[in-house]
C-alpha cells in the first residue's frame, strides 16, 4: 500500500490512537476528581496533585508521544517507569495495555487493562480498549460486553469510535445485522470518519447491497481520505452495479495515484472477486 493508510480493520488501532491518548492525558491540566472522607466527590486542582502523580504523568506524556511516533518499545519503557513511580495511575496501565495490544501480546494487554479497571472501573476508554483487544483475540461476546460498558460509562466522550469498533467486531463474529446497526450509529455520530465509511461500504457490499454500499464509498472517495483501498472497493462496487464508466474512472485514478499498490495490480488483472 502506498500513500495514505488503509481504512480496513487493521487501521482501527491507528485511527483512534491519537484520540485515545488525548483522553488518557487530557484531564490532567484541569480538575481532578477525588473522593472525600465523607464519601462525597470533591474537586481538586492540579496544584493539589501529589508529586508522584505529577512525575508519573510526565513519563506518561513522553510514552504517549513515543507511541504516536511508532516507537513502541521506548513508549513501553516510559510507561513502566510511570507505573513504578505511581502504581495507582490507571491511565498508565491503560496505555500499557494499548502498547501490548499493538505488540500482539494479548495476555499482558488484558492484564494491563484489567488493572486499569480495578483502579478506575468507570473509565470508558479502558473498557473500549479492552473490547478491541478481545475482538483481536476473537473473544466476541466479551468484546461486545466491554464496548457496551464503554458506552454506558459516565461522561464517556468517544461513543462514535466505540460504535465503529463494535460494528466491525460484530461483523467479524458473523453478526452482520448487528454490525450494520452499530456502524450506522457511528455514521450518525461521525458521518465523515473514513474508517466508518469504508467498513460500512465493505459490509454492505459483502451482504450484496451494492447500491447502499456505493453511497458510503462515494462519500469516502470524494474526500481527501480516498486511498488505494477505498478506490478499489469503489471499483468493485461499481463493477457489480455494471457501471463501467464510473469503474473505469476510479481505475484510472487508482493507477495514477497509487501505481505500485496491490490494489492497482489487482485492477490491472481484472481480479474483481479477490
From TrEMBL:
One Pfam match, by short name?
TPR_19
Determine the domain of life of the protein's source: Bacteria
Q: Which organism is it from?
A: Tepidimonas thermarum
NCBIfam families assigned: type_IV_pilW (TIGR02521)
Provide the protein name.
Lipopolysaccharide assembly protein B
Q: Which UniProt keywords apply?
A: Repeat, TPR repeat
Q: Where are the TPR repeats?
A: 56-89, 90-123, 124-157
- PROSITE patterns, per this entry? TPR (PS50005)
Q: Please name the InterPro entries in this protein's record.
A: Pilus_4_PilW (IPR013360), TPR-like_helical_dom_sf (IPR011990), TPR_rpt (IPR019734), Ycf3 (IPR050498)
